[in-house]
Structure formats: C-alpha cells, structure tokens
Write a structure and sequence with these properties.
Rossmann fold, eight-stranded mixed β-sheet
C-alpha cells in the first residue's frame, strides 16, 4: 500500500531508491521526478525505461542508479515491456508460482517526449487500449535532448531546435504541441494527470493516485531541460515556476476520461512572455518581426485555460 507523504521532512527522510551518482546534467529535472516517484510508495517496483537521457545517464555499465527491478529497452518499447511484465506477474500469481504471493508489485514505465509522443506512441496506445495495470510517466522536456536537440511533436511553437532552427526565414518550430494528456484520456485510461516538479506535493499525490488505480495510468511530467531550453542549471525550479504560474503548463487530472480537476490555480497569473523570456530557445521571439508569435502563444494559453475551467465545471 502506498504511503502518504504529509510534509517535506517526511519525504526527505524516506528511503531513497534512486541513487544520486548518475550522469544527468546538473539542473536536469528528470532525477527530481524519478526520485519522487520511487520514494512515494512502499510497494515493490518493476520499472522499464526507454532509450533516452534517463537511461543513458543512470545505467553506465557496470554501475546503476536503480535500487529496484529495472530494465532498459528500445526507444519505443517501454510501455510494452511494462505491460508484458505485468501480464506475467498476474499469470504467475494466478498459478501460485510467486515466491511471495502476498507481495504488492507496481509496474512503471518511463519515456521522454520523443519516445512517448512520437516513436513509442503506438506501443503506449496499445498497452493502454489492452488495459494493462501500469503507470506510464512521460518526462516531457519538449525535445529529443539525448540525440542532439531535434524537435518532437511535444516541442511548442516558436522554439528553436536543431531541426526547427530560428533564423532569417524562420521563427523556429511551426507546429503546436500535441495534446497527449487529452489523447490518453480519450483512450479510456482511468487516471491521467499533468504535473511539474516545482509543485512536488501535487506531483507525489498524482503518482500515488496512479499507482493505486487499477488499469493503465498516464502522467505527463514537465521536465525542464537546462541544456536544450538554454537556462542556467540553478534555475530549473524557477523556470518550472514560470511555466505553472503563466499556465503554459497547467496542472490537472482527468479521471475515467471525463472528470477533470484542476490541481493548481495561480494566485496571480503571469504573462506567457515572462516564461518564454527565461529560456534561450525563445529569445528570437522578442524581435519585432516575431511579435505575432508571442500574441499567438498568449491567446492559445488563455484559450486552453478557459477550456480546462469549463471542463471542470461541466464534469464532462
């Protein structure tokens, strides 16, 4: 049974199952998210991880940061691996061949936005459609950070990446970010949420809800990337605060595909441009010729917030 985290002191003194001796970049939010997931429950964990920053930086042979059952698979197969392990566990439990038949095991899959939104989407879709009892967590840094900083379908409009560079003839990424949270809810996942590490307690509660829910759950976790977003390593939480306070990254959950609950409402909503100005990947948007992109950003964020509030009020 998942333990309930009541305060920061209790959380900070809980058993640490994700070791700090890894090679993630200083300031990377991945380790914050992963550590909080692994520390928020007393259950046995079986974790699969797609190829990406998290995998290549936490399991450099012969060392590992994972103090739990863990497997690395191909770029697209994290959800498949977790669902296969879950199916095997259920079969062995039914046959009575487990060493500890009373054990509580939770299955978790991690993937970056490239392997989740793009390369592994069909695998994730299939695992959710089949109804496997596991939690999938997307570490959403809005770019293929491990392979050179290419754009993904999570990359927001106007961002400059190696495959959507800003310059004299382009303002960067032309497409708007895919709504994968809504897509997973439409799949029928019983619990879906969007979280951020700066609101650690809300994130832990969402993790605990997902782990306690029967069936496939999806968590989209904003993971600010100091390298590709181009901000100082000591500003990760500051940038994350700007994301949630500007509503660029609203925090909410969807239960059974219908009931939407907003998890955080800023006391004072800040302009989207304050968030964009904190990162080098958007600096070109502040040139006069790109003012229309800033206007589009604000309009889209405002429209999404209005939509989320209407959904919450209607409960449909």
């Amino acid at each position: 049974m998942s333990k309930i985290i009541k305060n920061l002191k209790e959380f900070s003194t809980s058993n640490d199952r994700f070791e700090g001796a890894h090679l993630l970049c200083p300031g990377c939010a991945h380790s914050i998210i992963v550590r909080e997931l692994m520390n928020c429950t007393d259950d046995e964990l079986v974790i699969s991880t797609n190829t990406g920053c998290l995998e290549v930086s936490t399991a450099v042979y012969p060392y590992t940061s994972w103090d739990t059952s863990w497997i690395h698979v191909g770029f697209e197969n994290s959800a498949t691996t977790a669902s296969c392990a879950e199916a095997m566990y259920k079969a062995r439990k039914r046959k009575g061949t487990l060493k500890d038949p009373d054990s509580s095991v939770k299955f978790v899959a991690f993937g970056g936005d490239g392997s989740t939104y793009d390369i592994g989407f069909q695998w994730l879709s299939g695992a959710v459609e089949r109804g496997h009892d596991f939690t999938y967590i997307c570490l959403d840094n809005e770019v293929y950070a491990n392979t050179g900083g290419q754009r993904s379908s999570s990359t927001p409009i106007g961002a400059s990446t190696t495959t959507s560079p800003a310059g004299r003839v382009s303002y960067g990424e032309k497409q708007n970010k895919k709504d994968l949270v809504g897509i997973m809810a439409a799949h029928g996942a019983p619990y879906v949420a969007q979280v951020a590490p700066n609101k650690w307690k809300l994130m832990v509660k969402s993790f605990q809800k997902a782990l306690a829910t029967d069936g496939p759950c999806y968590i989209n976790a904003m993971s600010a990337c100091t390298t590709e977003w181009k901000f100082a390593p000591n500003e990760t939480i500051d940038v994350s605060d700007l994301a949630t306070e500007s509503l660029v990254f609203p925090l909410y959950e969807i239960i059974d595909g219908k009931e939407l609950n907003i998890l955080y409402r800023p006391k004072k909503i800040i302009p989207v441009k304050d968030y964009l100005a904190s990162q080098g990947r958007f600096k070109h948007l502040f040139k006069p010729e790109n003012a229309h992109v800033l206007d589009e950003w604000q309009k889209r964020v405002d429209a999404q917030w209005e939509y989320l509030q209407r959904r919450e009020e209607a409960r449909v």
